[in-house]
Design a protein that fits this description.
The complex is a heterodimer of chains A (290) and B (256).
Chain A (H helix, E strand, L loop, with lengths): L12 E11 L6 E12 L4 E5 L6 H9 L6 E6 L2 E2 L7 E4 L11 H11 L8 H14 L15 H14 L4 E5 L7 H15 L10 E6 L2 H7 L2 E6 L4 E7 L14 H24 L12
Parallel strand pairs in A: 3-8, 3-9, 6-7, 7-8
Antiparallel strand pairs in A: 1-2, 1-4, 4-5, 9-10
Helix pairs in contact in A: 2-3, 2-4, 3-4, 6-7
Chain B lengths: L7 H18 L10 H13 L2 H33 L1 H14 L8 H8 L3 H25 L3 H8 L5 H39 L10 H11 L4 H29 L5
The chains are: A alpha/beta (290), B mainly alpha (256).
Chain lengths: 290, 256
């Protein structure tokens, strides 16, 4: 499961001055979701994008996946322009998007069976591959259950195994832990790092772009955190997370963890406050006027 | 489902049968009112003579053939219309303008094109079954979760494969709803079609169940026989629906 590093230090993914505008269906109005977004993602790194609700972070991820096309600017992977989805860039969705008519096993089997590599795999190889990822995510014994028979955490494990079984080079994750309860979430963060292979060498890891609105989650998981601001969605700052790997629970108690958390929160705070008002929810924090 | 066919389910029908019998007894002697005892006797005779089984068999063949034709045409066009916007835009006005035209209204055309035998009856059944099938197929395809399609696309799966492995399975529950509705409508239209289409083919069972009812009405004036036919259609349709539901469980175990 090695990632092919074309050249050391050469970005895996590049977003260059990417903007995205949407037409609002009824009014015909144009909404700027993402504006002039420039970012390089390096091979084997775990990069998170954080930002308040509606800042366009999911739009960035959809464009990376090839599901959305940028209005202007360019997205490349290994120097090749991204046009349309590809098995090289697999994605996990917030609500898992599992196939409800397929068992856990059949969900995980989907990519190896119908994807572009299907012909190269014999039935035995495919089975072995499904079994490997089923075991890796800890779903052994539940392979014959349908998604609705699995808990939220298990559905997420299944979605992750389905993604990995297709062996993409880049993993795109859109708030994958957003729908599980707080305790399961902490467990799954550590599991995710284990499955990603944080104990192996950098060139053996896959490139991950991870979307979350949870600052601590982003710090705990990532090598770098990109902070976005809303309306229009812009890249505000990219922070290096200089915490030791492998990340274990104790990392959460380090001073540096706390400092980073405060720093990112100060970057987001005002936007988050505005987002909370525009969505009609109770304001959680006072606005900062600076 | 078990409860439906349990003893409790038979209580109301039994009470109704008794009331019906009492009502019949209370009628004047020369009345043609069918009562359960006469109907039962009639049914025994019709089954023993082989007329009823033959007529039912004939109608089942027509219904199944018409249904099959409708299913093939309606599901394929429905998939196209649900999936491709241009197909929907172009075909929807055609489908919707034919939909209010009752199957029976096409009888003159059917007779002119196909004569007064099985093909005309099959045509009427296929026409009738077409609409619930196509409308539910279109609906089924349109309500497929977009995220699930995106998930398949990000796994590098091609468009045709997605249709086959994502869209059709997703739409299957509503296609089944359409099939069950279509089968019911197929039975209502076969009786009407056979009443008219096979009118000149003589007695016996070869005209199907509708023809048999027509003969009881127009020639021998045997209301008991008509009631037997009604009950027979009801029982057969119920059994077919039961088969559908069993099939549904087999094909879609996730939906239960």
């Amino acid at each position: 499961m090695g990632t092919l590093v074309e050249q050391p230090g050469y970005p895996k993914l590049q977003l260059a001055h990417v903007s995205k505008q949407f037409n609002v269906p009824r009014s015909g109005e144009q909404v700027r979701a993402v504006t002039d977004f420039t970012l390089d993602v390096y091979p084997g790194e775990f990069l998170s994008i954080v930002g308040p609700s509606g800042c366009g972070k999911s739009t960035v991820l959809n464009m990376l996946a090839g599901l959305d096309e940028p209005t202007s600017g360019q997205i490349t992977m290994d120097g090749q322009q991204v046009d349309g989805p590809s098995a090289e860039r697999g994605m996990v969705f917030q609500n898992y998007a599992l196939f409800p008519w397929r068992t856990a096993w059949e969900n995980i089997e989907f990519g190896p069976r119908y994807g572009p590599r299907a012909r190269k795999l014999s039935t035995q190889e495919r089975r072995a591959q499904v079994q490997r990822y089923l075991d890796l995510v800890g779903l052994t014994g539940s392979e014959h259950k349908y998604p609705h028979e699995l808990s939220g955490g298990m559905q997420q494990r299944c979605a992750l195994a389905r993604l990995l079984a297709n062996e993409p080079e880049v993993l795109l994750m859109d708030e994958p832990l957003g729908a599980v309860d707080a305790q399961t979430r902490v467990i799954l963060q550590e599991e995710l790092l284990r499955i990603w292979g944080q104990e192996s060498a950098v060139h053996d890891r896959r490139t991950v772009v991870f979307i979350t609105h949870d600052i601590d989650e982003a710090i705990f998981l990532s090598d770098r955190v990109a902070v976005m601001s809303s309306r229009p969605g812009r890249l505000k700052q990219v922070l290096d997370i200089a915490l030791p790997r492998p990340r274990v629970d104790a990392v959460r108690a380090m001073d540096e963890f706390y400092r980073l958390s405060r720093e990112i929160w100060q970057l987001i705070r005002e936007d988050a406050y505005r987002a909370s008002i525009s969505q009609g929810t109770e304001p959680m924090v006072a606005p900062v006027h600076s | 489902m078990r409860a439906r066919f349990g003893l409790k389910g038979f209580l109301l029908p039994c009470v109704l049968l008794i009331v019906w019998q009492l009502w019949g007894i209370a009628q004047p002697a020369q009345s043609a009112a069918p009562v359960p005892t006469h109907v039962f006797e009639s049914a025994r005779q019709l089954i023993a003579s082989g007329d009823l089984p033959l007529a039912i068999f004939q109608s089942i063949q027509r219904v199944l053939l018409g249904f099959l034709i409708a299913a093939i045409v309606a599901i394929s066009i429905g998939l196209l219309m649900g999936h491709f916007r241009f197909a929907d835009r172009n075909l929807d006005p055609i489908v919707e303008s034919f939909r209010p035209v009752a199957p029976i209204a096409l009888l003159p055309l059917a007779i002119l094109w196909f004569g007064t035998g099985t093909p005309a009856a099959v045509f009427i059944v296929a026409y009738a079954a077409f609409f619930p099938l196509i409308i539910n197929t279109i609906f089924g395809v349109k309500q497929v979760d977009g995220l699930v399609i995106q998930a398949a696309r990000t796994m590098g799966v091609g468009r045709f494969r997605i249709l086959q492995t994502v869209i059709i399975p997703s739409a299957l529950p509503s296609i089944f709803v359409g099939a069950r509705l279509a089968m019911g409508i197929a039975w209502t239209s076969i009786v009407a079609a056979e009443m008219a289409v096979g009118a000149k083919s003589g007695g016996g069972g070869t005209g199907g169940i509708g023809q048999m009812m027509f003969i009881f009405y127009a020639y021998s004036v045997k209301l008991d026989g008509i009631v037997v036919c009604m009950i027979a259609v009801g029982i057969v349709a119920l059994l077919i629906d039961l088969c559908f539901r069993i099939l549904q469980r087999k094909v879609m175990p996730w939906a239960h």
